[in-house]
Amino acid sequence: MRVIIRKTYEEISVEAAALVRSRIEKKPNLVLGLATGSSPLGLYKNLIDMNRKKLLSFKKVRTFNLDEYYGLKGDHPQSYRYFMDANLFNHIDIDRTRTMVPDGTAKNWEEFCLWYEEQIKKAGGIDLQVLGIGSDGHIGFNEPGSSLASRTRLIALDAQTIEDNSRFFEDRNQVPRFAITMGVGTILEAKEIILIANGKKKAGVVAQAIEGPVTSLVSASALQMHPKVTYFLDKEAASELKRIDYYKLVEEAEGSLGKEIF
Ligand code: GLP
Predict the structure, then answer these.
(1) Cα-to-centroid distance, 237 and ligand 1 (Å)
(2) Which of 11, 47, 162, 253 is most exposed by smallest CB count within 10 Å?
(3) Distance (Å, rounded) from C-alpha 254 to C-alpha 46?
(4) What global pTM score does this model have?
């Protein structure tokens, strides 16, 4: 586990983008798992910038998004398909047919979820998964209590999540009650994972996820069982961590070795 802590959100966004860039440079046909929410927006801005400056190409990259609201069409401004198009895909040289977001209108959602998992497998699995974290510790939409072995499925959203996400809708009643999300087990199969968190509001849950016990009550704590995770945290999101000195020491060691240490 690597924990990168910087003063500002801008700094962690730059560093997260540098990591994503290095992985695409190494493997131009990288299979990238993507997240929505405000946390990865800075990362996406930096990737768009790199693409504009022709420092990085997404032509061969494939993407799979973590989740989608159930009941929203892709052209709904609050759908995650719309979010991804508006905040990343429309601004980079990616082939849109290589971008996958769960279908929030799938009538037979059980069949759809199996199909989505199958597509990930067919693509060779996710090489690098980008994550944010919900204020209740969810990754994707894996609400507290999600099995740590869960797969892509329909999930009922927690009241806290509905509350958190109501700021994007006209009123709380418009927030969908269900979503389709990759499971915790699906996410853990990614070969590498990065998690971005910023702001004081995330400090408690970030500490639980990184330094607390592994529990289905904090889905992100399951990442402790993954061998290759990097957390990008701003100072505020890191403020309740107990082992900051050690994380700094590891970073210094990485500097002197010229290599990432997980
Ligand atoms: C949503 C998404 C998550 C995201 C979370 C946090 O619930 N399903 O993938 O991590 O929100 O959002 P934010 O980054 O805006 O705090």
Answers:
(1) 14
(2) 253
(3) 23
(4) 0.97
| Strand 99-100 with 67-69, pairing | unpaired
CA-based radius of gyration for the chain: 17
Nearest-CA residue for ligand 1 atom 3 is 140
User: Given the CA of residue 141, which atom of ligand 1 is nearest to it?
Assistant: 8
32: nearest Cα among 90, 84, 104: 84
Which single residue is written with the structure tokens 């924990």? 3
- Pick the residue whose CA is nearest to atom 12 on ligand 1: 37
2-257: CATH topology: Rossmann fold (3.40.50)
Mean pLDDT by 10 residues, the chain (262 residues): 98 98 98 97 98 98 98 96 98 97 97 98 98 96 98 96 92 95 98 98 98 98 98 98 98 96 96
Task: Quote the CA–CA distance of 234 and 35 in Å, as a whole number.
Answer: 18
- Read off the DSSP letter of residue 180: E
CA nearest 133: which of 6, 211, 1, 38? 38
CA distance 42 to 14: 8
Q: Domain residue spans in the chain? A: 2-257
Q: Which residues are catalytic?
A: 67, 136, 138, 143
Distance (Å, rounded) from C-alpha 80 to C-alpha 61?
A: 19
How far, in Å, CA of 75 to CA of 206, rounded?
Answer: 33
Cα 54 to ligand 1 centroid, rounded to whole Å: 29
Residue whose Cα lies nearest atom 10 of ligand 1: it is 132
DSSP secondary structure letter of residue 226: -
Q: Which atom of ligand 1 is nearest to the CA of 179?
A: 8
Where does ligand 1 bind, in terms of residues with CB under 6 Å?
A: 35-39, 66-67, 132-134, 140-141, 161, 165
